[in-house]
Inverse folding.
């Protein structure tokens, strides 16, 4: 297991705090749609520290309490899409901030973006259309007419890195949506009523036509693009010939660990899953060569 960048030591508390309880060291994760406001006058980008965004002439349309990072209260807020950044600040997408923003702040920014997006898209009841109301005792919105309660959405996505027993080969696939030449582990979303294990077996069989066994949990990672939880496993090949589903996979094949294709960016759990499997295989001499 390797350490995930989203494992920041953030202590979250319940309830909702108001901006009047803030200090000048409060952290604000300010978004314009999906872009985060960061300072550009320092060596590295940083988020806003202030009592309230109004101190830099910004007027949020909605605000959410996130919890505490050390002794600092943390909030997310959203600006109107017409908002312009103050002098010395700019809006940047989260992907572009990976490795540049403080690691714990990047983790909280991912949480903040998901909360802001959920709140924006659930202002009206999905059952009867009535404007919903934010509940103070938990992070949810309730319809005052039909009493439907909605919570932030989380979509579990399963990922599988498949090894061929007694070799140093791993199975990687390529989606038509990937950048040119990039191959990665297989992945797919869990369906209602499925266990994680059932989802992994189904997705692998549907996408490339092979069966796997000996599933081992690797790690998980919140993935705020837009609201996923990536859950990664290592599995062993059991049977079947590679036959990619053309609607999902344009190419898939076995790769020796010494001749890997272009891989996903380091920010992704897929890359760390592949790197960990390759390291493990490199340290484990194939049985036939002992």
């Amino acid at each position: 297991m390797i350490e995930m960048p989203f494992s920041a030591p953030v202590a979250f508390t319940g309830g909702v705090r108001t901006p009047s309880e803030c200090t000048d060291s409060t952290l604000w994760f300010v978004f314009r749609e999906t872009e985060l406001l960061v300072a550009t006058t320092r060596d590295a980008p940083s988020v806003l520290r202030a009592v309230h965004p109004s101190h830099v002439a910004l007027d949020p349309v909605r605000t959410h309490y996130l919890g505490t990072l050390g002794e600092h209260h943390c909030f997310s807020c959203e600006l109107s899409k017409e908002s312009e950044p103050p002098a010395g600040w700019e809006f940047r997408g989260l992907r572009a901030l990976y490795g540049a923003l403080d690691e714990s702040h990047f983790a909280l920014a991912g949480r903040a973006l998901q909360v802001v997006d959920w709140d924006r898209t659930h202002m009206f009841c999905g059952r009867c259309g009535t404007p919903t109301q934010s509940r103070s005792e938990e992070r949810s919105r309730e319809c005052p007419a039909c009493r439907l309660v909605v919570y932030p959405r989380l979509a579990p996505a399963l990922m599988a890195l498949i090894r061929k027993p007694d070799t140093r080969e791993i199975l990687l696939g390529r989606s038509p949506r990937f950048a040119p030449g990039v191959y990665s582990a297989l992945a797919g979303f869990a369906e209602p009523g499925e266990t994680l294990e059932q989802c992994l077996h189904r997705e692998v069989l549907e996408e490339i036509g092979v069966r796997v066994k000996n599933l081992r949990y690797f790690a998980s990672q919140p993935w705020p693009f837009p609201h996923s939880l990536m859950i990664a496993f290592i599995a062993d090949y059991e049977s079947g010939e590679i036959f990619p589903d053309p609607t999902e996979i344009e190419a898939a094949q076995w790769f020796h660990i010494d001749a890997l294709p272009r891989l996903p960016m380091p920010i992704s759990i897929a890359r760390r899953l592949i790197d960990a499997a390759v390291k493990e295989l490199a340290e484990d001499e194939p049985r036939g060569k002992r």
